Amino acid sequence: MIWCLWVPARFSCLRIGLSGEGTDAVVILEKTPFQEEKIPDLLKKPMHAELQMHNDIYCTFYLSPPPELSEIKATVVYPATEKHIQKYLRQEAHLIRETWEDYKNITLPFIQAQSFSIQWVYNILEKKAEADRIVHENPDPSNGFVLVPDLKWNQNQLDDLYLIALVHRRDIKSLRDLTAEHLPLLRNVLQEGKEAIVKRFGVPGSQLRIYLHYQPSYYHLHVHFTALGYDAPGSSVERAHLLADVIDNLAMDSMYYQKRALTFPLRADEPLFKKFQEAGKV
């Protein structure tokens, strides 16, 4: 079994063998954010406090809060393939600068050769799974999408708000496929997504970070909606592309993402990184 301990912005993963178990699993352990209304209880209740540092007016303590105020969320992937396992294990990372030629000759053939299942995406779109979690849907087959809470968000507080928009179209793998043809779809995602979130959760668009990943973690076009104050995994400059900027770029040049070089991080153990190494691009 694979136990992955996930702290926002960094990973710590352990591989633990369990006797009698013949199949691997990935377990992601994540400390949930504090809920503002529970802070007074946290400070009032007795707890163990260990002083770590005292310098003038500054002190640092390690606290052991009571169980009801120290929840940990566990996300399980079972059975897990080796691809799942490698995705969550900590590895040395490298920045790749991918030209359009690199995409055509290295990245695209690699994607086409992969068999990583995205059936779970189709299950959501077809309402075979998570139908009760849908926040908003535009059913148009070309310009529509489904908006659902990301599994990383437990919906108990808005500090780490995180939703995903999954487009109905199945022919768009990533940012590289986008042209001006897709502007109506992207504008729908941006506008309707913001409207749905402010209606359901009361968070205005000015407090949302709305972006696409490149490379994405799965090759079905999707858009991330996170709270602006939340340091969400993958929201850093080398991977996240703001949807509003993507729309402006495509309005300016329909072939923008078929022309420009894109930078993204890859872990040293990832097969795609090895392809770039073999091509002498690293």
Mean pLDDT: 86
Radius of gyration: 21 Å
- Enumerate how many helices there are, as a single number: 7
User: What percent of residues adopt helix (DSSP H or I)?
Assistant: 25-40%
* Classification by helices and strands: alpha+beta
Shape: globular
Uncertain runs are 1-20
Largest sheet: 6 strands, antiparallel
Count of strand segments: 14
Order of strands, main sheet, comes to 8-9-10-12-11-13
First-to-last CA distance: 33 Å
* Strand and helix order: EEEHEEEHEHHEEEHEEEHEH
What is the strand content?
25-35%
3D structure, described in words:
This protein has 282 residues and is an alpha+beta fold. The chain contains seven helices and 14 strands. The strands form four sheets. It has a six-stranded antiparallel β-sheet with strand order 8-9-10-12-11-13. A four-stranded mixed β-sheet has the order 2-1-3-6, with helices on one face. A two-stranded antiparallel sheet has the order 4-5. Helix 5 (183-201) runs antiparallel to helix 6. The radius of gyration is 21 Å and the shape is globular. Residues 1-20 have low confidence and may be disordered.
Short description:
The protein has helices at residues 39-44, 82-88, 100-113, 119-125, 183-201, 243-252, 271-278; strands at residues 2-7, 10-15, 26-31, 48-55, 58-64, 72-77, 93-98, 136-138, 145-149, 162-167, 208-213, 222-227, 240-242, 262-267.
